[in-house]
Structures
1.
Amino acid sequence: MNKDLYSVLGVNEKAAPEELKKAYRKLAKKYHPDANPGDTGAEERFKEISEAYDILGNAEKKSQYDLMRKGGGGSFHFDGTGAGGGSPFGSGGLDDILRSMFGGGGFEFGNRGGFGQRAASRPTVVISVPFRTAALGGDVRTDLSVPVTCPVCLGAGGSGEKICSQCGGAGRIQQGQMVLPCPSCGGQGKTYTNICERCAGTGEVTSSESVKITIPPGSDNGTVLRLVTPSHKHVLVKLRIMSDRFLRREGRDIHCTVKITAPQAVLGTKLKIRTIEGKILLNIHPGTQPETILRIPGKGVLYRGTKGDQLVHVDVELPPSVSAEEKALWEKLAESGRRKA
Ligand SMILES: [Zn+2]
Ligand SMILES: [Zn+2]
């Protein structure tokens, strides 16, 4: 069952809030169970109308729905077979659907069955974020492709408006027992003599928009942010965190590996270590053993009020080959070791 919420209410997708409210009131009155006792068809229809208005009557939910409606290719599936069964609007409306589509926190697309796969096919843009920016938070500038009103037809989709011949302007057609949105006019009730060539009748074209995205500190791979562009388009932005050559992140902690020579391990040394907040001097104590992990407190990622540490894995490298001079020195070491033993 493909239901377009606008055609459920029998309105144009550009209908103003008052118009939506009026359409909803009229239909709700007509199909209200009190006015149609025992009529299950009317009851179903009443439910459908209420669900549609629950979304379209709420500015935020409406803009999310509009975005997904475009991304999903014009049809939205509310049959509940994929997103957990039952009425997907039963508990919390579109927010819940978005959540179930995108997963809880990990955000792997398309793992929730048919519903998710379909509607999630293109609801987000993916942007790359430098490792350090994701850890510390910061701004990323990028160009996004966003739908804007067609400059040629100014959103109308064409010129020479005429009543749709298939549905006679109703926007809906009767097929057996079912009422469906008219396939000719897409539920609009009207078509154009001249379809706009620039936007192919959709009333919208894509345009590149420069946006500044504020990345919260501690952002992870797959984090999805909601963004409103300067032209007021709502976009979901999925983050892809770029890896760092030296630093790796595990939760709040940052890990890195340093290699020291055998003499450095035995005699101790100072090493310049890169952290997300800049370089620091790390003291390697005399007698440091291989596979030692040194903790630099407070140099991890701040997430929900708690800051992690940086963990330095110390690797002791032994020379794979030695010069004649070095060999003599190692032999001396070996000898002194034998004397001690
Ligand atoms: Zn156009
Ligand atoms: Zn029509």
2.
Amino acid sequence: MALSTGPRWWRVRRTPHPVVVADPATPFIQLDAIAREYQTGRGSLTALHPTDLAIPVGQTVAIVGPSGSGKSTILNVIAGIDRPSGGRVTIGGTNLTALSEEGLTRWRGEQVGIVFQFFQLMPTLSALENVILASEFRARPLGAGQRRRRALELLELVGLSDLADHLPSELSGGEQQRVALARALVNDPPLLLADEPTGNLDSATGERIMGLLAAFATAGRTLVFVTHDPVLAARADRTIRVRDGNIVSDQLTDRPTT
Ligand SMILES: Nc1ncnc2c1ncn2[C@@H]1O[C@H](COP(=O)(O)OP(=O)(O)OP(=O)(O)O)[C@@H](O)[C@H]1O
Ligand SMILES: [Mg+2]
């Protein structure tokens, strides 16, 4: 990506966990006939019709579409937060559909950073404690001191060191968004999923967050994000458009070949 990457990012960057893909031709993320239905008081609602999607390792993908079209549903299925009603999800060779809840939680903690649409910070923990908590699930565990230092590095990266001891309720929406990003990056996961990561931010802060996401999406890391902003979508390598629970277009971004 043609975005600049600030020097502070590089200072804290770690070698990513090796991404285990048996065959280089195998997509990193593979959704096979994934469907999601909800049973509601008014009958069943199809949030996602059977959908296939393959994302190679290292790609940055934007998911766009109207409200209620199924964007978060796709992201949550990839994250293993939402179990699909049908189909199969394979990520980095792991079949998520076959994992137990415990296995899924462990896999997610080690392999995925998630920035939720509504942040989902723990309300009784400070910003710092929220980030430290996320570093519990690591492939290579850290000691308490290291976890604290790592969490502080990440809060500094998103410009929130001064607010580390604030509770989420004492932070603005944009500040909570940045804590959520620090938390998502704390384990340096090979996959980052972000649901409207700049939705609550002014344009300058949004730029900064996008810069951090772009810096993340190097060195073979894969980024999938939902956005309503066409300018942000154009920065991705690929845009997937969703409508009424279907992928209606899937386009690689044209870039000038200079
Ligand atoms: N727990 C649920 N129970 C019933 N229906 C749900 C549930 N969660 C989502 N839906 C429905 O599934 C559809 C897709 O929801 P989803 O959250 O994926 O939309 P979205 O594209 O992310 O929308 P937005 O841009 O507003 O965040 C919507 O019609 C929504 O009402
Ligand atoms: Mg959504």
3.
Amino acid sequence: MLLATSAGHAGNPSAAAGQTPATEANAKTQAGAKAQAQSQEAPKPQSEEAAEQPATPAQAGAKAQTQAQKGTTEGLPKAQNIDLQEPIQGAELVAPDGTTADAAPAVEATPDDLVGAQPFVLLGREVPPATSTRLAWAPSQSFEGIYAATPVLVVHGKKPGPVLCLTAAIHGDELNGIETVRRVLYNLDPNKLAGTVVGVPIVNLQGFHRHSRYLSDRRDLNRFFPGDPDGSSASRIAHSFFHEVISHCDALVDLHTGSYYRTNLPQLRADLTNPGVVALTKGFGATVVLHSEGAEGTLRRAAVNQGIPAVTLEAGASMLLDETSVEHSSKAIQTLLNHMEMVSKFRLWGDPEPVYYTSTWQRAPMGGVIFSEVALGESVSKGDLLGTITNPITNVRTEIHSAYDGRVLGMALNQFVQPGFAAYHIGIRAPEEKVPAPAAAADSNASGQVSPAAEPLPDTEVPSDEQPDAPDSGDDAFEDG
Ligand SMILES: [Zn+2]
């Protein structure tokens, strides 16, 4: 077992305390059906009903798409031009109809200056060239009538160029990406940008509010893309986000962290069998790249399947904000903007080549308290001591030694682990062109006390839509964290 290509898991039972999933699902089904019916009507011109009520972003988006297909954005409300760095005082951030409550007057760009530049249409708003704005995406109306809207930041450059999308907190407990998106977006000058950067700092607002990786129905949103408008709640949310936002992207960076008290060295997860994805990985400066197709249902994989080059940028651990990870991620994305020729003046990162890896996991052979002897990112040789596990009851101590020459790309934080816990993620360096092929070197059973390579791949079935209570496979670490 080499490549990180296995599957996920469904629920964290503790994540749904107090929820009544069946009732909620029913309510959402009804609300969703209603929203769908409405959105089917949406393509017709502004109806009286639409004039009376603020359009939901889904309705407005459908209109925008229809209008865009007609080659006109006539009639779309213009997004306000906002200085994203300017803090919002007091007022509600995002109104349910997708507008920002901030009442800053729109600053019209000089027409002469912008000949040839096109407005960017997203979520039912027209963003003029050389402006920044906050929009809102809401998957559908919940039974209360209003779904909490997720802020979507847009910086639309003065010059034409690609649309780069940055998404974070699809897992609601992963915080580093939120701050990374803020730093990148708030430091962009639309007057100096070629193309468009769309940043969604918190995709899974439901999980974020509960400090949970999951949606409120205990499903992992990152297993449901590209979604289904008639499917489960998670599937509908995924479908809405994919079609309202992601389908407008030319490239995607989805930000994640390690899961379950594991931390990751900043790294890209990328399907290196895809040339467009490989090209994208070369833009992140000195960021290591781990080959992985991505589990079925991940946003990254769904985007790649739709022809949008996408990578996951993993950095740090869940529930922690660490400056090292945020700094690296921000720098990596700024380097990417430079590489994509969207900005010209960002500090360059010396433009070092990425380093490609295959990888394997070293597991805990027994349960107990794990303490590490290595640091994240450290190079290790076969036989090196990675850490120890001590049973607090029997006082039996076991050592975990590296089975390979490699580098620690991810590792457990010190904690109590169960036998079989994936504790150390060892990257094995390989030339880019060889990474996707199974590397024989790492498949042999190693001499370490654990033998991750000998284990079969964890259950690769994506948890069924119908089984929100499916037990956690425990092998999430194989996946995008
Ligand atoms: Zn994640």
4.
Amino acid sequence: MTDKPFLYVVVCAAGVAADVSKLITAAQERDWEVGVIATPTAMNGFFDAAAVETGTGRPIRSAWRRPEDPRPFPAPDAVVVAPATFNTVNKWAAGIADTLAVGTLCEASGLGVPIAVLPCVADALAAHPAYQDSVSRLRGMGVRFADPYAGEGERDGERGVFGWERALDLLRNG
Ligand SMILES: Cc1cc2nc3c(=O)[nH]c(=O)nc-3n(C[C@H](O)[C@H](O)[C@H](O)COP(=O)(O)O)c2cc1C
């Protein structure tokens, strides 16, 4: 048990997820207690699950609990989605809660819990009108989006710096 505020870190299946431990460490340094919820696809080798569980001291959640099981995490004081994929952003905006990650996001926005999003979406996908509508709909719900990040291929295959701490700044500054 701890008095620290509880942060959910929702991890989607984008290449930069491999570095999600940077966000966890930065959040802990800012005095958050952290629990990770990953999409089922993200659990399929996109990051080091064992390292994350060691770092947070808690199991990663990816599937719904059974009805008789207790809630594994406390209620969130804030939520970060990083990296946020094209797929998860669109499902969240549309209310398609077919993963624990999206279901948690839909519920957290309804409860008014602060949510910060670090998208990692290629320019070609970000140009899709459904994605633009999704971002605008979620912004209208009060969700805080960081600037776009296109991932690999930005400059001749080079990847810019993802800037994990932007999520924590967004929670602090709104
Ligand atoms: C190596 C790899 C990297 C990927 N990177 C991204 C990415 O940066 N952004 C994205 O939106 N999708 C990316 N994808 C595609 C997603 O994994 C795919 O759309 C998946 O359905 C997303 O599931 P999720 O939103 O439930 O995590 C990548 C796929 C692979 C195999």
